[in-house]
Amino acid sequence: MASTDTPVGKTEVDKGARDGGRDSNQDLAGLEAGLDALDAVQSRRVPFRQTFVKKILPPVTAVVLVLVVWQILVWAKVTDSYKLPAPSVVWDEVEEAWLQGTLLEYIWTSVSRGLLGFLMALAIGTPLGLIVARVRFIRAAIGPILSGLQSLPSVAWVPPAVIWLGLNDQMMYAVILLGAVPSIANGLVAGVDQVPPLFLRAGRTLGATGLRHTWHIVMPAALPGYLAGLKQGWAFSWRSLMAAEIIAQSPDLGMGLGQLLEAGRTNSSMSQVFFAILLILVVGIAIDLLIFSPLERRVLRSRGLLARS
Amino acid sequence: MATSTLAKAAEDITAAPHAARIEHVSKSFATPAGQQLVLDDITLDVAPGEFVTLLGASGCGKSTLLNLVAGLDKPSAGDIATDGRPALMFQEHALFPWLTAGKNIELALKLRGIAKAERRERAEELLGLVRLQGAYGKRVHELSGGMRQRVALARALAQDAKILLMDEPFAALDAITRDVLHDELTRIWSETNVSVLFVTHNVREAVRLAERVVLLSSRPGRVAHEWRVDIPHPRRIEDSAVAELSVEITEQLRGEIRRHGQH
After folding, report:
1. Which of A47-51, A122-126, B184-188 has the lowest mean pLDDT?
2. Which of B178, B19, B177 shows the shortest CA–CA distance to B87?
3. Are residue A96 and residue A171 in the same domain, yes or no?
4. A82 in a domain, yes or no?
């Protein structure tokens, strides 16, 4: 304020009280820099040892513990060996499938179906969720049905899908869509609902209206909820697909993980059943860990919503 | 820059344009108990380059009035005219956490139609104005409370509005930071020639910042009294002149509040 361009009338009265008025602008800058430095948020890299002890060690311990208990039960002969094969027998199944080259084939058949179905669900669920969230009439009309559909087990859609579409890939995709679209749409609706009204007001005062308001304010603000919906959508896609694959057996459909599981049952091979369940579980977790969790963490971290541990 | 003082010198010309003109504005809201009158016949002008604080206890409708001036709501009666769309700053910084500090400012420029090539440079300039030169790439959560409000101020200034509406923008800050930001706001106001309509319930803050203090009564809000503040800048919150006027205004304010306890 009291720099050289301040009119004389404003400062002269004050001369006695604050002789350093000319420097006060400089003082203020220094003061502010000091405050900023004191308040600055410190962030540091977490050392690997700490990550290892806090993040990697616990789940590894849990898995090892389960294997140990499993092996003990086998040694103790709690039940017949055809009901409870040893871990090593199941591992032999994995090794054999790997050596025959069929392991990746099983996985790819299901994963390619699952991901393609998920992408289709994404393309349908996103605009659907946006419309339900923003148009009051449509929300009142189909909002409750959409959230109700989430609690319907997707395996219920397999019989009608088989009758409508036959035993083919279309039927699989239909079941995936019916399972995943509601999750994705609902996630987006929840995300939009949770946008703080302050952001909407701030956007409006900045001059964002209509589609620009949706694109620049609503969508990015709803992103965390949307990502949570995507994550759940993937889980639902994968589950729906497995239900469809277990029920629908046909040579045209190839050998996916669900078919592998069902084949194990008809062969009365418990080790093959365990092998299939293991693969289904590992693939589901792997997709989540490789795609969705990093995406979600990145978004949350960039917004300061994730506490560093 | 002395532009704001020049505008003040020309103040006696009644035909001068106004940054904001509030004429006989009333606002009532529907409640279960019937219509509730929040603002009653408010008339208030803000001259170009003028700094006005609106002061009042809770229930005086300060924030409602600011929303009306910002165009976020419509008055039940009366007229509001502003010179262009006003910029608005809230008590919460309201910065978008998915953008960096610089990009928050650039979004305001973009929505105003500024070409992409110019935005970066303008944003850096505005950050420089609030003395946050290095903060362009910083995320909102990496900034302190005071820094956030300064970025919010820069974003509001990016709208290049003739009038800046401020709704208790420093109320949530600690006393030291608030004191510094008072100096900062005064400096920026005198450098930019923007008009400010500043809402607060803090008497000393009102006196320290404003050229004119307007006291609103509560339930419904009416203009109860007005003071012109001629204390020269730079002012300090502990200046005796600031304290003296604050005592006078506080007396009036307490009188207004006391009336509500009598029935």
Report:
1. A47-51
2. B19
3. yes
4. no
Task: Find the domain containing A18 and state its range.
Answer: 8-39
Q: A39 to chain B: nearest residue by CA? A: B144
SS3 labels along B186-255: HHHHHHHCCEEEEEECCHHHHHHHCCEEEEECCCCECEEEEEECCCCCCCCCCCHHHHHHHHHHHHHHHH
**Total tally of structural domains belonging to chain A:** 2
Rg for chain A, CA atoms, rounded: 29
> Is A289 found in the same domain as A152?
yes
Assigned domain for A73 exists: no
To 5 degrees, how large is the angle CA A88–CA A91–CA A93?
A: 120
The encoded tokens of residue A63 equal: 């898995």
* Residue among A7, A33, A302 whose CB faces B5 most closely: A7
Quick check: A18 pLDDT over 60?
no
A74 to chain B, minimum CA–CA distance in Å?
Answer: 53
Residue in A closest to B112 by C-alpha = A207
Whether the pLDDT of residue B197 is over 70: the answer is: yes
Residue A120: inside a domain: yes
A6 contacts in chain B (CB < 8 Å): 2, 190, 233
The structure tokens listed for A237 are: 């896609």
User: What are B69-110's pLDDT values in tens digits?
Assistant: 988 888 888 888 888 889 999 888 899 999 999 999 999 999
> A25 at the B interface (CB within 8 A)?
yes
pLDDT 10s digits, A19-57: 444 456 777 888 888 888 777 666 667 778 888 888 888
**CATH code for position A141:** 1.10.3720.10
Q: Testing the interface with A: which of B89, B111, B180, B235 to mutate, by most A Cβ within 10 A?
A: B111
Q: What is the pLDDT of residues A231-272, one digit of tens each?
A: 999 999 999 999 999 988 887 788 889 999 999 999 988 999
Specify whether A183 is located in the same domain as A249.
Answer: yes
Task: Note whether A199 and A118 are same-domain residues.
Answer: yes
Q: In terms of domains, do A17 and A102 share one?
A: no
Q: What percentage of residues in chain B have a pLDDT greater than 90? A: 25
Q: Under CATH, which architecture does the B1-9+18-86+162-263 domain have? A: 3-Layer(aba) Sandwich (3.40)
For residue B32, count other CB atoms closer than 10 A to its CB.
5
Of A36, A41, A208, the CB nearest to B111: A208
Handedness of CA A163, A167, A170, A176 (dihedral sign): positive
Contact A40 B144 (CB under 8 A): yes
The tokens of A303 are what? 């917004």
Burial code of A66-100, b = ≥16 C-beta within 10 A, e = fewer? Answer: eeeebeeebeeeeeeeeebbeeebbeebeeebeee
**Confidence class for position A176, pLDDT limits 50, 70, 90:** very high
Same domain, A124 and A255: yes
Half-sphere exposure of B223 (CA within 13 A, CB side): 19
Return the H-helix or E-strand segment holding A178: helix A169-193
Tell me if A1 is assigned to some domain: no
Averaged pLDDT, B209-223: 86
pLDDT > 70? residue B10? no
Q: Does B94 touch chain A (CB under 8 A)?
A: yes
